[in-house]
Every structure is written in C-alpha cells, then in structure tokens.
Amino acid sequence: MSIGASLKRLEDYNLLTGRGQYVGDLRFPDQCEAVIIRSPHAHAIIRSIDVEEARRLDGVLLILTASDLPGDLRPIPMRLSPDPILEKALQYPLAKDRVRYVGDPVALIVAKNRYMAEDAADFIKIEYDVLPPVTDAVQSLEPGAPLLHPDAGTNEMYLIHGKKGDAAERLKTCEHVLKEELYVQRHSGIPMETRGLLALCDEDERLTVYGAAKVVHFNHQLMARLLNKNIEEIRLIETDCGGGFGPRGEFYPEDYLIPFAAMRLKRPVRWIEDRLEHFKATNHSREQKHQVTVGFDGDGRIYALRDEIFFDQGGYIRTHGTTVPSLTQAMFPGPYDFSDIEIVTHLVLTNKTPVGTYRGPGRFEGTFVRERVIDMVAAHLKLDPTVVRERNYIRPEQMPYSNGLSALGQVIEYDSGNYAETLDYARKFMGWEQFAGKQARAREEGRFIGLGFASFVEKSGFGPWEFAEVEMRPDGRVICKTGLTEVGQGITTTLAQICSDQLGIPYEYVSVVHGDTDLVEKGNGSFATRGAVVGGSAAWHAAGLLKEKLLEVAAGQLAVPVDMLALKHGSVVYAEAEQVAMPLDELLQICSDRGITLCEKYTFHIEHMTYPYGCHAAEVELDPGTGALHILNYYIAYDLGKAINPMLVEGQLIGGMAQGLGGAIYEELKYDEIGQLVSGSFMDYLIPTSMEVPEVRAEILENYPSPLNPLGVKGAGEGGTVAVAPAIANAIVNALQEYAIPITSLPLRPEHIRKALKQMKPRTERRSAGPTG
Amino acid sequence: MTEKTAESSRLKTITLKVNHKEYTVDVEPRMLLSDVLRDELRLTGTHVGCEHGVCGACTIMIDGRPVRSCLVFGVQADQANLVTVEGLESEDGELHPLQKGFWEKHGLQCGFCTPGMLMTACHLLEHNPHPSREEIREAISGNLCRCTGYQGIVDAVEYAAKEMRERAE
Ligand code: FES
Ligand code: FES
C-alpha cells in the first residue's frame, strides 16, 4: 500500500541537480525582456507620459502606456466570490488616468535585455498631480477621506453581515462582557521565486505562455477573454514554481501585458519580477482590525459574540473579490459552539497594494483574534485558558455542525472531529499539568517562561470539482493528468501514490502531468488546500475505473468472477490469497491485442468543504530587559483524517509554522503616512531564518476521516500557519502574568514587548493562570 | 556607429572555470555574475531570489568559498574557479551526499532555495564534518527558505555529514 507511506518525492531529483525549469530558466531565440514602470506615488492623477526619448534608445523594442492598449479592454475580473458591486474598483492592466498605490503599473518597456529596458525606464517622463492618500482602513471610512474610485462613490466597497440568533440581545443578559480591539498587520506569502512570465507568439498568432501557476485553466480562459482570442489560440504552461502560498499564480496586470507585448512584437517576451517590485506589485494580505465583544458566564462559557471587522483591501479589488473577508467572518467562531453570533465586515479601499489570499486566508487573522479573546476571558475569570476552551468546544456528537455563517457560497458545516482531543494531546506533550511549578522555579532563577495554546479549525477541499485522467501505457507506465498544479507542495508524488495504490504498481511508474492547457483538458487548480481532497479523489476514481476495466478483462481471460481478483505488486492476484493469477504485462498485452484503450477520466464533484483542525502550543522565554523572545518548545497536533504521505504532511505543517511565525513576530508590509511602502526589501521585511524557526514537533492524527471523500482526507496546506500567532501571544501573556500587558496586535516585536513592560508596573499579587487556576 | 559596435565596445572578455569546464564570454562590466551564469552560460541551477544579497538563493562557490553571485559582477570573477549546483554530482552521475540527504529527509519543497542551500551546506561540511544541529542552523542562516521551516534541511545536512564521515572511514 503506498497511501499512508512516507515515500520520497518524485519531484526532487531535478530540483536537487539544477535541472529544474523555473520560468526564468527558459530561453528562446530572439527572446527579449520587459520591465514595468510603476507609480512612485500612492495616489495621483497622471498628467502626461512622454516616452519619445526612451523609444529612441538602443535595444528598445516596444513601449506601452494605457493609451496603447485596446480601447475596449476590460479590467481584470474577480475569480472567486465576485460581486457586481465591486466592479467599479477593478484594476486595468495599466493605470489609465489615476494611480492608487505605490507600484501601480503605468507603462511597459520591452528591450533586448533587462539591462537595456531598465536604462530606458530612466528616460520616460511622467507627470503626476499628487493627491492626498489614505492608508488606514478606519480613516478611509471617515467623511472627507479621499475617494479612491470616485465612480464607486465610497471607499467602503462591501459590507458583509453574518448572523446567528441575536447577539446584541444575548449580550444584555450575560454575566460578564468583554470588549477588545485587535489588529493583524499587512504581510504576505513572499515566495522565494518572484513571479515571471514568458510569452511567445507564432506567425499564425498562436500564443504560448510559460510561467502560469496555481489556477492555470482559469487564467487560460481569462487571458483569452481579455486578449480577444479563441481559447484554442492560447496555450498556458506551468513551469516549476518556487513557492505559491496564495499570492502567486493569480491573474495580475502582467498576465495580460506580457502576452500582449509578445503579440505585438512577434518575438518571445520575458518578464521576471524583481524582488523590490514583488513587494509592491504582488498581492499583500491579512491587514484587519477587529472590535470584538463577547458575553460569558462565570464558568467561562461564552454565549454571545459580536465582531466588527475593518478589512484593508488596498487600491483595487483583485481576483479574490470578497474571499478573504468572508472567510474571516465565516470561520471566525472556529472550534467553538457559540449560540448567538453577529459579525460585520467592512471591505475598505486604501492607497496601498491590493490584497488577496495568503496561506490560511481569514483564518490566520480570525484565529489570532479569537484565541487571544479566549485567553482574555480566562484571565478575566482567573481560569485555566485550556479549561475555557474545553467548555466551549463543539462536541463530536454535534457533528456535522453548522455555525450558521457562510463563505464561498456555502454554509460552514464541519464534517467530523473531536476538538478537545487535539488540545489534550497538546497539554500532555507540553506538560501543562506541571507547568505552573516549572514556571515558578524558572522565575526564581530570574527566567520568564510561559506556555500558550491555540485551537483552530481549517477548511480544505474547496470544490466544486477537479479533474483527472489516468492512462496505462502498454509498458505498464501510468500517466496521470490532473487539473491541479504543483507549487512545491508535492502534488506529483501524492497523486502518484494514489494511482499506485489503486493499480498495484510502484509509484515511480506514475508520471503526473499538470498545468498545460494543451495536455490537460480542464482543471481548477491548487488553492485553498483542495489538492489531495478534490484532485486526489478525482485521481482515485479515475484510477479505480481503470482498475475495474483491467480486472474485467483479466476475469474474462481467467474465467473467474471479477470480484475474486485484485491488482497488487504489478500482477493480477486472487484477492483472498494474494496469489498471482496473471502478471500485469500479460494482461496489458491482451488489452493491446484486443484494441482496448486503458484510459479513464473522472471529474470529482464536492458540495461541501471538509474541515481539518488541531491545536498549537508554544513554550517561550522572554527577556524582560530586551523583550526578546525565545521559543523553547513548539507543538502542533493536527487531525486531517488521513495522510497520503505523512512526511509531506509534516513538511507542510512545519513549513507552514515557519510562515505563521513570520506573521506572528517579524513580517510587516509597513506604510508611512504618504503611502510609501517602507519595508519593501529583504533588508527590512524580515522572513524568519533558520535561527528563528524552532524545532517543531508535528503530531499527525487520523482519528476523524472526512466522510465527504473516498480517501477520508482533509488537507494539510494551511493548518501549520493559522494558529502560530495566538499560541505565541498567549505564551507571552502567560510568561508575564503580573504585568497584564495588552497583547492585541501583530507582529509581536520585541520592542513592543519591551515598551509594554516598561509602561506596566507588575501587579503586586501574582495571579495564577496555570492548570489549577 | 551601428548598434552592434556601440554594444561591443562596452564588452569585456572574461574566462570562468565553472564545474571544471572553461568558458570564455564577452560581457558588459555591469552584468552580475548570477546573470552571466544563468543567461550567458545557461547554468540556470543557480537561482536569483532577491538580487540584494539577502536570500542566499544565488550562492555558489568561488575559489572554495560560498559567495552570493548576485553581489559580484561577472568581470570580477574573471579567471576564478566556480562551482555551482550543477557541479555537485560526481562525474558518473552519483548524487552528492547532501543531495541525497535533502531527498531522503524532505529538505526541499519548491526547490527554489535548494541550490543555494546545498552550496552553503557543502562549505560547512568541508570545514566541519561533525556539525551540531545548532551549527548547521547557524551555517545556513544566511539562506532563506520559505517552504520547509528549515527542519528538513537541518535533518538533511546531518544525514549528509554522517554519510560523508562513513565514506571517509
Ligand atoms: S539573489 Fe543573491 S542573495 Fe538573493
Ligand atoms: S524549498 Fe521553497 S524556498 Fe526552500
């Protein structure tokens, strides 16, 4: 059985030997290179653009401004959760008369190479009338705030209102009420490979575009629509991809501009985003302010929850429409059973880079806020925070459980799970029972240690469907075509394992083909942790159909009932005794002689998402003098129903944790008041290095398989990320109990902790919030 | 002056020894070594993640020392001995113990940081055959990886160190 085995990845050999083919590695004769000129202002009217001098320079082949693009060109539409209300704030590939963030594309230059194109960029003269910018979502709603899209008439593009019961009424009757304001900063995926595209146009006007990622088939359709071409006239090809994490692979202005330039020039045009450009141009994510009110009783049972969320969208609506804010809101209650809920989310425009998804979209933010609030409730009542969690969890017998809210067009309905169980694992592993004693002893030595927990529910397996086609060649090799894409997560190996399991052949015999619109007939792509669940199930079924076909032929040949036979170890076997009935190559020869094609397709549909879940726990030590944080121990318990390849799942959890840690402590896309991005290089946007990321113990649990798919899988892409910030924040608060420092915003920088410590006098009496609390 | 001569007057001829092979190329003095390797020599195993010296993806060996090739001009490497990821395998195609280690221990996901990581780790193991996990972490701390959380990489380097020690015995 290869499902469930930690097999080595099929992807790795090429990547380890320098044979990988990332988009920047490709080269065609006559290839030239594009550079994009971007707005230096956060908000301005474009007065004039003079390109004449630049046009005359050596090596310059093409310069485009908005006026060179077709007059009927439409803006880039939304891919997920579209809404007509948002259409007034969509982005055109080049800014027409106004720029709305630093980095807004204004012109494109193509030259013989990038050095020449960058030279030419210096000769383009653009006159701007600078307008006052707005860089804060709450300020952007104030009367008199500059309007970003005057046509829309408001900066508040959308309001999401979710309700179950009557939270306002319920709050009036609660014994205790707590109101808090919390904030999650802007940061993003920042993959190590920046975006890039390489577009070629034949003499007969057929376009080939390399560098697509994530949602290749969707972008294929969209590219055809925007370029006014037939879908058959365009081929999109995915190359190796140096990290996805959400932002990469969406349809951006450049996905129109580079193919357009190739069509105009009839020569291959390459564009590789540089790192400084990446920080301004590629989707940001996460920035949200929350105003939460919870009502609870003296035991910590929470009854009512209200939250008003201010979501900073940046200058335009990009391809995700309302995806992130609606996920924040719908997943906000997490693993808890609250009877009355009301959440309002304002989607607000500001003069900053537009936002989209980043690993755990909405959940990273919501989990931070909610899990901090749980600890605040516990602190308020002087209770053990893990006990407060326990008292509020949805119980296994309540499954399937709907929290009454919806996102992505479906009501949230948790399929299965036991949330208390993962907390138990975490408590046990971290020694919570004994921690108060350990902490007291440490304090006697002058050390400040703390332990914090955070529970979460993730979602995965977003539908509505995914496609697979599995073919067995006469030599026994298998080709599995999938609508998924590879962004480094190992989908090739995962699908190979699934096919190998069905067909009883080594997984190395399976070649997985993905991300080529000429070769794969359709697909939705890799996002929202849907790969193993939806694409994996499609491959499972397609390979299953193929297996049935093979066994039928074998049964006819051997004159036995088909259910007596199975495929194992490269043979047809008698199912019971596992005794070889016929080698597979003999069967393949028979099929080939009879002209039987061994190729099956399957489109797997799924109506509801599935919900993996777990618990993070962090033990930290703080230096009260400097505010420096040291992670002593980190643990994740994650129940995902079934792991196809536990090694890859562990890799996802640990890698995801490192990204969550970045968001928790280090990373911030910070703007000054005139809208300049002040953390726009790796010198000041701090990604955790090997010195900051601790050893992580990831426990993979398979206790509650999903009833919604044949594999029982729940997906592993995001659970490592979403609960890091609250686990660490809660640990910090636990370490500094007597200071009562207000940890309500991210990132948790040492300087903030240091400052808070200076301002707070220790409370005289040390409160106990340990397990006996 | 024609376009061609204007360009060629700016070019300098340099000789690079890369992975035991000699290359002579004409490059503009301002061309980064990373671009020379990737675009002129077509050795695209060396990756560029930032071009400002922070991510370490472009790390190669120059005369036995790990160097960020995006911070060096091609002309500065004239006559130097370079090793890139393409030079790690042995002549007969056997993978370097580090490459094996990364494969065994799931030391890579997207693989983009991997060539730089391998070169940095290679230098570590040449100088310290018995690194502790802490020492490994310190050695690779100038190479950013966005996918793995480093744990698999540290495991991989440990694995390779052991393998190399056993080979040496
Ligand atoms: S590309 Fe050279 S250090 Fe980042
Ligand atoms: S493996 Fe993707 S950046 Fe390291």
From TrEMBL, chain A:
Molecular function terms, GO-annotated: iron ion binding; oxidoreductase activity
Which stretches make up the Aldehyde oxidase/xanthine dehydrogenase a/b hammerhead domain? 17-132
Arranged from A to Z, the UniProt key words for this protein are: Molybdenum, Oxidoreductase
Q: Which SMART domains does the record cross-reference, listed alphabetically?
A: Ald_Xan_dh_C (SM01008)
Q: Which InterPro entries match?
A: Ald_Oxase/Xan_DH_a/b, Ald_Oxase/Xan_DH_a/b_sf, Ald_Oxase/xanthine_DH-like, AldOxase/xan_DH_MoCoBD1, AldOxase/xan_DH_MoCoBD2, AldOxase/xan_DH_Mopterin-bd_sf
Protein known as: Xanthine dehydrogenase, molybdenum binding subunit apoprotein
Q: Which organism is it from?
A: Paenibacillus sabinae T27
From TrEMBL, chain B:
Q: Superkingdom, according to UniProt?
A: Bacteria
Q: Which PANTHER family match?
A: OXIDOREDUCTASE WITH IRON-SULFUR SUBUNIT
All copies of the 2Fe-2S ferredoxin-type domain together span 12-88
Name the UniProt key words of this record, in alphabetical order. Answer: 2Fe-2S, Iron, Iron-sulfur, Metal-binding, Oxidoreductase
Query: What pathway does this protein act in?
Result: Alkaloid degradation; nicotine degradation
Q: What is this protein called?
A: Carbon-monoxide dehydrogenase (Acceptor)
Query: Which one of the record's GO molecular function terms can you name?
Result: metal ion binding
Q: Which InterPro entries match?
A: 2Fe-2S-bd, 2Fe-2S-bd_dom_sf, 2Fe-2S_ferredoxin-like_sf, 2Fe-2S_ferredoxin-type, 2Fe2S_fd_BS, Beta-grasp_dom_sf, Diverse_Oxidoreductases
Q: Where are the transmembrane segments?
A: none
> Any signal peptide, and if so, which residues?
none
